[in-house]
Amino acid sequence: MFPDLTRDDVFRLETRRLWLRWPRQADLSALVQLAGDKAVAEMTAQLPHPYGPEHAVDFVAHARRQNGAGCALTMAITPRSRPADLIGVVGIRASEGGRPTLGYWVGAPFWDGGFATEAARGLIDAFFAYTENDELMASARVVNPGSRRVLEKCGFTHAGSGLEAFPARGGVFPVDHFRLDRRKWASFKAWGTADYIPRPREPDVAQLCGA
């Protein structure tokens, strides 16, 4: 799905306030702390609760394997001023039906700051710029209006409602489905400000080494 450009862990996307980078082992403690919050986990299909160190290890390993294979692109959301500090995750992967699907979460201490929208816009731009796909899907639980607002601010339009499996929640839940096509993205891609257009960036060697 994704080209060679994204398949190396030096790949970064830069937005006005954020760096999006590959997840890494140094993120484990932040993942346990933030993804372990029940308020975060219960709105997602994949985050178990409780969320322990073993879940974080599995997530990082799986994300890096899929990124390297180009079949998905999962990125840690970090502040540009502190690129070592994970505050959430955003990713695009194939759904069970094979359609590229956007997912994201942001830790509760960082809610209401617009970070989920900014991160999603950055990855959406990369998806349409670097792949030949013409459509991106997403869904949100009907009890999660915040996630719906993020998708609407990213240009998604409502594409119906239904039930969706949430493996980590142990069942199926009502969701709203959303769709964004290339034409709609092209009309929205400035996102109201050029600051949101992502730029691939080579990281500083010291940052890669955790200095």
Record the SSE blueprint:
Elements: E1 12-14, E2 18-21, H1 28-35, H2 38-41, H3 53-69, E3 72-79, E4 88-94, E5 100-106, H4 115-130, E6 135-141, H5 145-153, E7 157-166, E8 171-181, H6 182-188, E9 199-200, H7 205-208
Antiparallel strand pairs: 1-2, 1-9, 2-3, 3-4, 4-5, 6-8, 7-8
Helix pairs in contact: 1-3
Describe what you observe in this structure.
Helix 1 packs across helix 3 (53-69). Residues 193-197 and 202-211 have low confidence and may be disordered. The relative contact order is 0.18. The protein contains seven helices and nine strands; from the N terminus they run ββαααβββαβαββαβα. Strand 7 and strand 8 (171-181) form a beta hairpin. The protein has 211 residues and is α+β, with helices and mostly antiparallel strands. The chain is globular. The strands form two sheets. A six-stranded antiparallel sheet has the order 5-4-3-2-1-9, with helices on both faces. Strands 6-8-7 form a three-stranded antiparallel sheet. 31% of the residues lie in helices and 28% in strands. It starts with 11 loop residues before the first strand and ends with a helix.
Short précis:
This protein is of the alpha+beta class. The chain has helices at about 30-35, 40, 55-70, 115-130, 145-155, 180-190, 205-210, and strands spanning about 10-15, 20, 70-80, 90-95, 100-105, 135-140, 155-165, 170-180, 200. α1 (about 30-35) packs across α3.
SSE-based structural type: alpha+beta
How many strand elements? 9
Give unreliable regions as ranges: 193-197, 202-211
Tertiary shape: globular
What series of H and E elements makes up the topology?
EEHHHEEEHEHEEHEH
Question: Helical residue percent?
Answer: 25-40%
SS element count, helices: 7
Work out the strand percent.
25-35%
Mean pLDDT: 91
